[in-house]
Amino acid sequence: METTVTLRPPFEYSPWVFLVGIAIFAAFLALVIWSLSKIIGPRKKKVEKNKFNVSPIRRNIGYQYIVKEKYIAQIQLLDRKYRNGKINQREGFQTLSLLIRGFVHDITGINVETATMRDVKKLGIRYLDKLMEEYYVPEFAEDGRAISRELSESCATAVGVIRSWT
Known about the structure:
The protein is mostly helical. It has 7 helices and no strands. Helix 3 (61-83) runs antiparallel to helix 4, helix 3 runs antiparallel to helix 7 and helix 6 runs antiparallel to helix 7. The protein is rod-shaped and about 130 Å long.
């Protein structure tokens, strides 16, 4: 018994199938290259959080002038209250501390309200560590303990630092 086999013509692909295959392959290749660049590529240096990432509004000279004048007025009011006997020296140093810390926060955006002296020194803000050293001991001194620095002198120093702040 003899059998015959008839062959059919070869299966032909449409040009669209070929183009879609190329597009899928190109997308896959791009994904592989992107993934490798993320894994092997150069690393960006991380910017330290506390290194004066000052917002554009805080860089504005007008904003700084308004903030400076606000805090200078508050420090001068504090000095008048102390000279008139409305507050004692320890309360004055505590208020001065809050004012200076608030000023630094408003100008730089760095939260120093709860920072210790060591934290402030690490920040490296010019004059701030010296100014805080001046009121730090009197702020936490016991009531009976003699305070070597006069509040009025510290207020004058604080006003000078605020005026010279850049």
